[in-house]
Amino acid sequence: MLTPHRLQSMVGLTTCDHHEEKQKFFCEDDQRPLCDSCLLAPEHKDHQVLPLETATDKCRDKLQETLSALQKKEEEFKMALDKVRRRETQGKEDTYTLKQYIISEYEKMHQFLFDEEYQYLHGLDQESTDNLVTLAKNKAKLSQQIQNLQGMSIEVEENLDKVPLEMLRDMKGTVERNEELLLQEPQVASPSWSTYPITGLREVLLNFQRDITLDPESANPLLILSEDLKRAQCGSVPRDLPDNKERFDIALAVLGTQTFTSGKHYWEVEVGGKTKWKLGICKDSVSRKGKLSSSSEDIRTITAFWKTANHFLLFISQRSFQLSPPIQKVGIFLDYEKGHIAFYDATERSLIHSYSNIAFEGPLRPYFSFGIPKEESTPGSIIICPINNQ
Description:
The protein is of the alpha+beta class. Helix content is about 35%, strand content about 20%.
């Protein structure tokens, strides 16, 4: 093939330097012009040799073909560039549109949650009003019963001061009236609160779920742990275990193996059986020996025990709440930096209680505890739910 460089070098070159003959041929193998004598030389015997004009036409056609291919390829790249520019513009428009869609959807969700919050708070206000009315009636009834008792006490005291015959005569009526009062039992009203599920609550919390296991070194000897360290049950006979400093000796408690010094963490616990249980967090330095005070700042827990077949009392900071139906699964959320711990009914997706603005210091650990089982009751168990348990 005749290259452009070779064609340019032939301008004005018509005579061979060696034979002084006109160069009328072109050797494509050596890329050089040849005269008649050069053509007969042995080194060009098997080479592709063409007349100079033919070689020039062939080269021109090839160059034209290459030029056309380059121009076509350039057009393809221009079209591609134009398409990218259009996509860039479209991408910006799509991004803006998508943002508007997202903003719109979140506004709907926000409004939905605002409406739900309003209904929740409105319901609580109504229940609070109803409870206060009930308590007010309860107070009035108790006050009236106290006045009746005080009146009868005065009457009895007056009878005691009477002469014997008068005392004997009036005793029957006084005793009969007293018997009716003495049969009455004081009734204390217990406020009730409805359960309000919070939309999306558990789905958000599960993003922070941790794989919690029980620490056998901390378990009270009466507690029986499963092999996977996910279940604890209260036995009837203490196990023969070393009394190491990490082990609880009085409190029927066990700690989680994991420690937390920062971040957000969530775990869920199934609480089955009619037994008293206590769940929460505690300082890693909490005393393991002797009784633990429920008011200790080293632990933050909720405590529940069954009252009847369908109710149990939930204790939080020395206050009690009657819940119905009982909680089956408790969710516990810890935000170390914000000093926040919250307890949820994981089944109903509702808040039980939360502590806020606590100045956490040092490592914290999950805390699990039982109440002393009654002889007639079947010991319950505490089960840590597996991660991503839906």
